[in-house]
Design goal:
four-stranded antiparallel β-sheet
C-alpha cells in the first residue's frame, strides 16, 4: 500500500525505483498480478512500459523519455542478465531531475518526469555503480505468494474494493507527505546490502545445491563451496565472478557463519579450514565431495 500510495503523488517525493522479486521459479509470477492490479487502479492512460536497456542507455533518445511524460508508472519487463554499466539516466529519471524530452514533429523541451519505474525480475543485474545515490533509490519487494493459475484473481476484485484501496492510499499518502518521505525503508547501507544479495545468485545456488541445518556439526568447507559456486556462475553465464572475500561477505549478509575450524580428514590427521556452518550438500551434490569431520 505504501509503494502504491507514493505513485499517486506526481511531485514532491524523492522518487525511487521499485523492484519486485520472485522467490524461486514458478509458472505464474505474482508480480504480474500486482502490475495488472496497479494498471487498473491508476488507469491505463497513466501507465507505460519501457526496457532497462532503453532507460539505462547513456544516450537515451528524447523520444524514449516522452514515453514517460505525464505517466505515474513505467513497467520494465524482465531484465537481461548482465551488468549495469550506465546508470546516470536511470538515476535522473528516479531522482526528479530535469530531463530533455521530444515528441516527433515538435521542438524538444526540459521537464520533470514522475513515473515510478517498476521492475519485475527474478534476479537483479549486477552493477559496477557502487555509489550511495544508486543504491538509495531502490525499494525491493519480495513476492512469495503463488496464485492459482486456474483462477482470475483480478476479476474477483470489485470496484468498491478498488475505491476502498484508493481511500487507504490517500490516508497513507498524506502521512508520507507530512513526514517528508517513506519511513522504515532502510538506510542506504541496508539497501546496498540487500541489492548486492539479490543481484547475486548465491541464494539460488544454496537452494538448488544445499540443505539448511542449524546444527553445529553441519557444515561445508568454504573452499569446496567457492569452487562449486564459481563453476555454477560460469555455467549460468554470469559476467562477474566474485572473489573468495566477496563470497564470504555475501554469506555473512544472509546471516551465514564462516569460521575457521580444526577439521579431521579421513586419514584422521587435522588441518585448519574455513567452514560454512548450518548448511550441507544435498545428496545429489555429494558425489565428488571430500569427507571432513569437525573435531
Amino acid at each position: 500500500s505504501i509503494s502504491s500510495s507514493s505513485m499517486l503523488f506526481p511531485s514532491g517525493l524523492d522518487h525511487m525505483s521499485l523492484l519486485s522479486l520472485l522467490s524461486g521459479k514458478i509458472l505464474h509470477p505474482p508480480q504480474a498480478t500486482y502490475l495488472k492490479f496497479m494498471e487498473k487502479f491508476l488507469g491505463e492512460e497513466n501507465v507505460t512500459a519501457s526496457t532497462m536497456n532503453a532507460l539505462s542507455s547513456k544516450s537515451m533518445s528524447p523520444f524514449e523519455t516522452s514515453n514517460l511524460h505525464k505517466k505515474l508508472m513505467v513497467v520494465i519487463g524482465e531484465i537481461d542478465r548482465g551488468i549495469f554499466k550506465q546508470t546516470s539516466t536511470l538515476k535522473r529519471i528516479s531522482g526528479d531531475d530535469s530531463i530533455k524530452i521530444e515528441y516527433k514533429g515538435k521542438d524538444s523541451f526540459n521537464t520533470h518526469l514522475y513515473a515510478t519505474p517498476i521492475i519485475s525480475t527474478n534476479l537483479m543485474p549486477e552493477t559496477k555503480d557502487k555509489t550511495r545515490g544508486f543504491f538509495r533509490r531502490w525499494i525491493q519487494l519480495r513476492f512469495d505468494n503463488v496464485f492459482d493459475v486456474e483462477k482470475d484473481i483480478l476479476s474477483q476484485i470489485t470496484d468498491e474494493e478498488y475505491r476502498n484501496f484508493a481511500k487507504k492510499c490517500s490516508i497513507i499518502l498524506k502521512k508520507i507527505i507530512d513526514r517528508g518521505g517513506i519511513i522504515n525503508e532502510g538506510t542506504a547501507e541496508e539497501k546496498e546490502a540487500k541489492y548486492e544479495l539479490f543481484s547475486n545468485p548465491i541464494e539460488d545456488f544454496i537452494k538448488e545445491k544445499c540443505e539448511i541445518d542449524s546444527g553445529m556439526e553441519t557444515y561445508i568447507i568454504f573452499a569446496d563451496f567457492y569452487e562449486r559456486y564459481t563453476n555454477y556462475l560460469l555455467c549460468e553465464q554470469h559476467k562477474i565472478i566474485p572473489s573468495t572475500k566477496e563470497v564470504s561477505r555475501l554469506l555473512k549478509l544472509r546471516k551465514t557463519e564462516v569460521i575457521p575450524k580444526n577439521v579431521k580428514k579421513t586419514d584422521k590427521s587435522y588441518t585448519r579450514k574455513y567452514v560454512i556452518l548450518g548448511i550441507k550438500w544435498k545428496e545429489d551434490t555429494k558425489k565428488d565431495q571430500n569427507v571432513w569431520n569437525l573435531s
